[in-house]
Design brief:
The protein is of the alpha+beta class and about 325 residues long. Helices cover about 15% and strands about 30% of the residues. It has a single domain, classed as 2,3-Dihydroxybiphenyl 1,2-Dioxygenase, domain 1, CATH 3.10.180.
Length: about 325
Amino acid sequence: MTDPTPTPTPGIHHVTCIAGDPQRNVDFWAGTLGLRLVKRSVNQDDPGTYHFFFADAEGTPGTSMTFFPWESLPRGAVGTGQVSRTAFRVPAGCLDYWEERFDAHGVDYGDRIERFGETVLPFRDPDGLPVELVEARIDGDDPTVPWTEFVPESAAIRGFHSVTLWLADPKPTGELLRTMGLEERDTEPTPADDPGDERTRFAAAGPVGAYVDVVRADESGRQGHGTVHHVAFQTPTDEDQAAMREAVQSAGLRPTQQIDRHWFRSVYFREFAGVLFELATNAPGYTSDEPLDELGERLVLPGPFEDRRGAIEDALPDVTVPRAETADANDR
């Protein structure tokens, strides 16, 4: 029996989304946003589909935005029971740079807004996924490592800031977040043009991906291109994960057994409103099968998939990762 009081999660581990065209997805997240493609693999439940991992320079926990580019799916719609927004930290004072970059690359972005005393720049990726950049203080001991192939360090994305959950009834989810070790921080009204009547912020203890915002909303949605598939929270060790799994189960939810995802070990469950949550360990990490300076350079096939490499590679479309030496002036 594990300790019934789990170690609080430090925050978000990764967010996984659904995309359409894989080349367009790589071009935007690596070339336009300047994240590093740290892992090029396949969906382990559907190996005919890529799984891309975009992160900081070292794939630090709390920085990975990952995608399943399921081209056959239609465009989705963000709604209740989903992660409605994913926000990234950027250094304070750099949003002018990002607006100029978005203008140069034809990115759909909105006006800056203030939320909980922070400046937020909302935008959408080519599949319509709602994303935000939030100006944040990046301390000298910050665990993230900026990737600067396309974006200067003064503006580089430094991991997650938060996710926003749209929920028909936020109360049970709020209790779950407390069970996971997040503390309720503040509540403020949502803007008139945003679904929901108030936003409540919960905070984890870690410096990266610390916030989960909960909004009561009744918007109907459907999964597809431009929506989040699941959000994963850090349970750094197997012991942390086992204790958190037991706590989640004791709260009345139905977590899976631990599943080996090659770069981390995972437990999945749907929280009370239907959002798919994952608990993910920090080890063994993205450098467990590739040297740091070669991350994302080749297709990595975990475990039994390696024996099927020929068939898998034949079924996947070719994808070229943008490189600074071949980019135009807008990328420098």
